[in-house]
Specification:
This is U32 family peptidase. With 644 residues, the protein is of the alpha/beta class. The protein contains 15 helices and 30 strands. A hairpin with a 3-residue loop joins strand 21 and strand 22. The longest helix has 21 residues. About 2% of the residues have low confidence.
Length: 644
């Protein structure tokens, strides 16, 4: 988002909201925008919200110039289209700011049938990895494209350079899907639960055996597709200069304390960067956040953190020992007694803390397996901890992690932050009374101003009234405003005015000011892409051989989407989820990943790894003996997974 003077770039911190309470907390802790699911059609089935709650969130967010995006990023079935269109109408009345869309049938319906003025964002399920794909999506009417999580900072910069008119949104924090979003069918194939319908069964968090084509077991019961969680907080400055304008925190299923902590951490980091470069960046919303706790990302649910592909391919992006939250490292087990142990640590502990450790064991086949074991602290006396039940696998010297910190949770309970809008006041005389003007305070803020008047005779005071005038006008109580300056003009402090009259004037002015929209002044560059009158094949923008072989990758689940792609010149077939049975052709592609098991295990010769001794192809095998063939596409540096 480019500001009006074309020099200062507007930055948006976008936070998840499981529900209304989480959405309000996100705004209070510094989010510039919130994304939330409606009652249907969001990619998290268990995170739905009523239109009434969304309208309430919009009203609250808009007071600070913040926005509300609604996720409608599932694929839509024909019998749902009318309900979907009605929901869009209701959301527009609720004054939401944007819709996140995957289904091109929904896009076509919004543009041609509803003619909605809502901003449309191409969801990450659209699998946008290239400038060509982003350009194509922009030509269809998307104002913003949510990029694939797998892109590097340089790849984001290259896309921005190629299509500078398009807003680019990048994920910066939270859980990672191992497959490119939108082209993962593993959950549907194995459990008839569609990720593209918001019902992912988390296939990638399961334990697998890795076998070669001779049946040799290379890895036994390890979480080879389970990635660590993303954290780009140390890369924000670079990302801000890459061309991305919106930075998205994952977590629409996370609780309110996750939202408070993570949003606060990123809000403070962004503000620190902008304070150093005020002529380069600005925030997309307004207000000053005051937290009463110190954010700490290590104290929030995480599987260990990775910057993923921000700087290119790197080791250590997956968590093969456990798909669960490891938490923060708090020290080593020092000495164990029958019912307690102590920890060599500078950390402080509390009753009820959740702790865990990685337990290595030898299985029946003589293989070393690692498992995460957790327990709860019943009583903490300094560094001596008394568990509810002593974990059998705990040994002296083991590293200990805390995945639930009771003291920190208590800090986050209740009101942990206040967001206030700084304002300035001008008080002066009118012909028959007084006026009070209110405007936003600060550099680069919108020129929003209101003026209220009140009739009251001018009675000369025995002594100047300035002190009482300022005191009464700045009593803003439970409002979201804080007054930084009062200008008393026209010698108005020389006249007597009762405190009750000042209070009435203040109330009237504040109520009027609260109705004014607070929006960043932006110029929307005219998009130069025009493909409407062309039969531009979708193959021009995405991998043609892959989509020809597996046409279900278009995710076409309704007649409107079918017509859309036919108009684009693409020969498409029904979505994976709409087939009567699983695909009739052999070995359907069910995942495509940038994560590469061969690389992560140290056997990618292209990147200097050891030469494998196994016989390929390799297979992942679940406990129920379902097998999945791995294909290492070194040309595109990615891993494809096929069902057997």
């Amino acid at each position: 988002m480019q500001s009006k003077d074309n020099t200062i770039k507007t930055i948006e911190l976008l936070a998840p909201a499981k529900n209304l309470a989480c959405g309000i907390a996100a705004i209070d802790h510094g989010a510039d925008a919130v994304y939330i699911g409606a009652s249907k059609f969001g990619a998290r089935q268990s995170a739905g919200n009523s239109v009434e709650d969304i309208a309430t969130l919009c009203e609250y967010a808009h007071r600070f110039g913040a926005k509300v995006h609604v996720t409608m990023n599932t694929i839509i079935y024909d019998n749902e289209m009318d309900d979907m269109l009605q929901l869009v109408r209701e959301l527009e009345k609720a004054k939401v700011d944007a819709l996140l869309i995957q289904d091109m049938g929904l896009l076509k319906a919004c543009k041609e049938y509803l003619k909605t003025n809502l901003s449309l964002h191409a969801s990450t399920q659209c699998d946008s990895r290239t400038a060509e794909k982003v350009r194509w999506l922009a030509s269809l009417g998307f104002e913003r494209v949510v990029l694939a999580r797998e892109l590097s900072v340089q790849e984001i910069a290259n896309i921005h350079t190629a299509v500078p008119e398009v807003e680019l949104e990048a994920f910066v924090h939270g859980a990672l899907c191992v497959s490119y979003s939108g082209i993962c069918y593993a959950s549907q194939y194995c459990f008839e639960r569609s990720a593209n319908r918001g019902a992912c069964a988390q296939f990638c968090r399961m334990a697998f055996d890795l076998k070669d084509s001779d049946g040799k077991v290379i890895e036994h019961q390890r979480y080879l597709l389970s990635l660590k969680d993303m954290s780009q907080i140390d890369n924000l400055g670079t990302l801000m200069r890459s061309g991305a304008c919106a930075f998205k925190i994952e977590g629409r299923l996370k609780d309110i304390n996750y939202v408070k902590n993570v949003v606060s951490a990123y809000n403070q980091k962004l503000n620190a960067i902008i304070a150093k470069h005020p002529n380069e960046f600005r925030r997309a919303s307004f207000g000053r956040v005051e937290c009463n706790f110190t954010p700490d990302l290590n104290k929030t649910f995480n599987r260990g953190y990775t910057s993923y592909f921000a700087d290119g391919r790197q080791q250590g992006i997956f968590s093969p020992n456990t798909p669960k939250a490891l938490g923060e490292y708090v020290g080593k087990v020092k000495e164990i007694r029958r019912d307690s142990f102590n920890v060599s640590s500078t950390a402080s502990f509390a009753n009820g803390d959740g702790l865990c450790f990685i337990n290595k064991q030898i299985n029946r086949e003589g293989r070393t397996i690692e498992a995460l074991e957790g327990f709860r602290v019943n009583k903490a006396v300094g560094n001596r901890l008394y568990p509810y039940k002593m974990p059998q696998g705990l040994k002296a010297g083991m590293g200990l992690y805390r995945n639930q910190d009771q003291a920190f949770e208590k800090e986050l309970a209740g009101q942990s932050a206040v967001r206030l809008l700084p304002i300035e006041m001008e008080f002066g005389l009118t012909f028959d009374g007084y006026f009070l003007a209110i405007r936003l305070s600060g550099v680069g803020v919108p020129k929003v101003e209101t003026k209220a008047t009140i009739q009251f005779e001018h009675q000369e005071a025995k002594k100047p009234q300035r002190e009482n005038i300022v005191r009464q006008l700045t009593k803003l109580g439970n409002t979201i405003y804080i007054c930084e300056h009062v200008d008393v003009a026209d010698n108005a402090d020389q006249f007597f005015i009762p405190s009750s009259v000042l209070a009435e004037l203040r109330r009237s002015a504040i109520e009027s000011f609260a109705l004014q929209p607070l929006l960043v002044e932006e110029t929307k560059p005219q998009q130069v892409y025009d493909l409407k009158n062309k039969k531009a094949s979708a193959f021009e923008y995405i991998n043609p051989s892959q989509y020809k072989r597996f046409p279900y990758l278009y995710n076409v689940s309704n007649r409107v989407a079918q017509a859309f792609y036919e108009q684009q010149g693409a020969n498409v077939k029904t979505a994976f989820e709409c087939m009567d049975t699983n695909p009739t052709h052999d070995n359907p592609l069910i995942m495509q990943c940038r994560h590469c098991i061969r690389y992560s295990l140290g056997y990618c010769v292209v990147h200097g790894g050891k030469k494998p001794t196994w016989k390929e192809p390799l297979y992942l095998e679940l406990g129920d003996k379902k097998r999945f063939r791995l294909e290492f596409d070194c040309k595109d540096c990615q891993m494809n997974i096929y069902a057997e």
